[in-house]
Amino acid sequence: xxxILFLIVVLTASFGFIQMINADALSIYEIQxxxxxxxxxxxxxxxxxxxxxxxxxxxxxxxxxxTLYDPxxxxxxxxxxxxxxxxxxxxxxxxxxxxVSLTNVKVEEVVxxxxxxxxxxxxxxYTVVSxxxxxxxxxxxxxxxxxxxxxxxxxxxxxxxxxxxxxAMLLKVVDVNVDGQGYGKAEDNYILQSNRDPNSCWAADYMxxxxxxxxxxxxxxxxxxxxxVTGILEQYTGTKYSVHYDYYQLLTTNTExxxxxxAADCDGDCDVDLADFSVFASYWLQDGCVExxxxxxxxxxxxxxxxxxxxxxxxxxWLEGKL
Length: 323
Prior knowledge:
By secondary structure, the chain is mainly β.
């Protein structure tokens, strides 16, 4: 017999969403936060209720996956994945932007990633609490904060698990080059080398809805430069052919996750700051702007003039790419 859930409607004006809270349920933060050196949840193996969060990505199954984000914890420990290992259609009435809560789901560490397992034997249930919630802006992190594993004898292992706090959260790295392909357990990882420091991280496109047959998105090739790559962070641990793996990978989900050139970046360094504003100001009120230069990039609307419309666009991109 299912337990009776007492739900309280709470209006959180600062985020602009309505959240249904089960007073006995756990938050994503409570489930994800850990001091375990390997990153395992303290609730591993337990069947729990979770207040859930906003759906930021849906991967059809099987296994069907939801990536959930709790905006009450925007900086760390705020994301988690819910999964039905066997069904393709369990979450068919769920949409990106829905707030979803879950009951009777099992917390499991599956090859390193914390999942809320939607297993029939536990009599699980989910509730779509609200719709059209605002989606999070990715957290811009340094490449070294989700650092690539170090190659050893029959192993690719991260030096530490400091990236664990970002698991299942939406992240963005800036100003990177594709420095290699064919890494990891499935050989579908590629290296993103920072152009600002010696660090690199791994990314993969297997959850990218616009990749059908190839391992990589069509934009990804060795030598490709991106002003930004956005993705959901996932951990993978396991052994294949006697090689041990323990790494984090940034999973892209669509073409928009690749920023080839940063809008309003007038000086070409993949960020928008005072140096760019100086260039922009030097073209203020100039007309006759034409492609490909568009008045040094100051004509952001590409209508031939540098005016208040371009200033509004510049302001929208202010400090993008800055760390």
